[in-house]
Amino acid sequence: MPPAQQPRRWLWHNRDYMLLWSGQIVSTLGSAASSVIYPLLILALTNSPEAAGIAGALRAVPYLVLSLPVGALIDRWDRKRVMIVCDVGRALAAASVPVAMGLGVLTLWQIYAATLIEGSLFVLFNIAEVAALPRIVAAHQLPQAAAQNEAGFGVANIVGPSLGTVLYQGFGRAVPFIADALSYIVSVATLLRIRTPFRAAPSPVRRDLRAEIAEGLRWMWANPLIRYMAFLTGGLNLINAAAPLVMIVLAKHLGAGDAEIGVIFSLGGIGGVVGSLVGGQIQKRFTFGQVIVTVVWIEALLFPLYAVAPSYLLLGVISGLIYLLGPIYNVVQFSYRLSIIPDELQGRVNSTFRLIAFGFMPLGAWLSGALIERVGALDTVLVFAAWLLLLAGLTSVNRHVRKARPIAQAAAA
């Protein structure tokens, strides 16, 4: 029976959720190991921060093009099959980099192609996964599932960067990408073992794709809180996409090598784990508005400290504090959003939300490289700090955020 009709039980006893969760932890570990290597590899090949920023933008830009039609199609298609096909495709894209290295034909354009393919398939996988989660996890357990996801991903993001740099330096530049490809295969294996259907029975009526997309757009636009949260999340993601390259360049200026840069990202991951462990409790103890406003203000005050950090280790500490905030924010907004979207609209509404939320990431990734190359890393930090202060001010005065109902009331409405 669907999770919503099952008796209450511990999330750890939910076999299908644990399979999905464990597969994504391994996949995230592989991605974290290779993601820090992409800019290092491009910097080694080109010595251009802007070229590294373009690669980050290409990984994120497919959301701008694909998310709306994909959201409607995900509500039609078998979500599990989509996720499996995407993981196989991402494994092949990641494996293409070490193959090209082995043949001595690796170019910047090959790296760009691999990141674009991985980013495109991520759009389909991510929307399908988010739409499937309420089928696997009961509504009352969505905050717990969101917190557990954040904790697992946080651990993967602690281990992944250090693992990637160790593999890169100790075993060869190709090895982190091989590990990433294998992690996608593990995800495929766990998906194949899940028994719960990833959607309700599909409607026999097929309408025009544009009409279905418009239905998702109308639902989200009619909900002013979810609409604002989409734009706020997009604004924060602009910073999230820009920060890694900023930290790499600042760390290199402070004398850090590739291994030390991996440590910086791992310190950020530790913050993410701590945030995920407390995120569920914070969601229970404080209102939606209190959490969201406070988190955005703290990040706005912490980010300028990157410009004055005297050592690369302190860059990692600042990163850890900022990364602590992300899971808290995500647990609150993600569980709230999923609890109120009808199942038949999950793909379309979430794709609309994530079009906006992720649509700022290509701009952030490109802008970080372009600004660093033109005005320097320190001035780039100040530009992004001003952006965060603007977001914090707007969020503080938004009445829909401040007066949002508790999740149980919102879900029942």
In DSSP terms, counting alpha (H) and pi (I) runs of 4 or more, how many helices? Answer: 18
N-C termini distance: 24 Å
The level of helicity is: over 70%
Number of domains: 1
Oligomeric description of these chains: single chain
CATH architecture: Up-down Bundle
CATH topology: Growth Hormone, Chain: A
Helix and strand pattern: HHHHHHHHHHHHHHHHHH
Low-confidence region ranges = 1-8
Percentage of residues in strands: under 5%
Top-tier CATH class: Mainly Alpha
Mean pLDDT: 83
Structural class comes to: mainly alpha
Describe the sheet with the most strands: none
| Shape verdict | globular
CATH superfamily: MFS general substrate transporter like domains
Radius of gyration: 20 Å
Q: Count every beta strand, where a strand is a DSSP E run of 2 or more residues.
A: 0
Summary keywords:
413 residues, mainly alpha, Growth Hormone, Chain: A, 18 helices, 80% helix, 0% strand, globular
Written account of the structure:
This protein has helices spanning 15-35, 37-46, 49-60, 62-74, 79-103, 108-136, 142-170, 175-192, 209-221, 224-253, 258-285, 288-302, 312-340, 346-359, 361-375, 377-396, 399-402, 407-412. The radius of gyration is 20 Å and the shape is globular. It is mostly helical and 413 residues long. The chain has one domain (3-200, 210-412): Growth Hormone, Chain: A (Up-down Bundle), CATH 1.20.1250.20. Helix 3 packs antiparallel against helix 10 (224-253), helix 5 runs antiparallel to helix 8 (175-192) and helix 6 (108-136) packs antiparallel against helix 14.
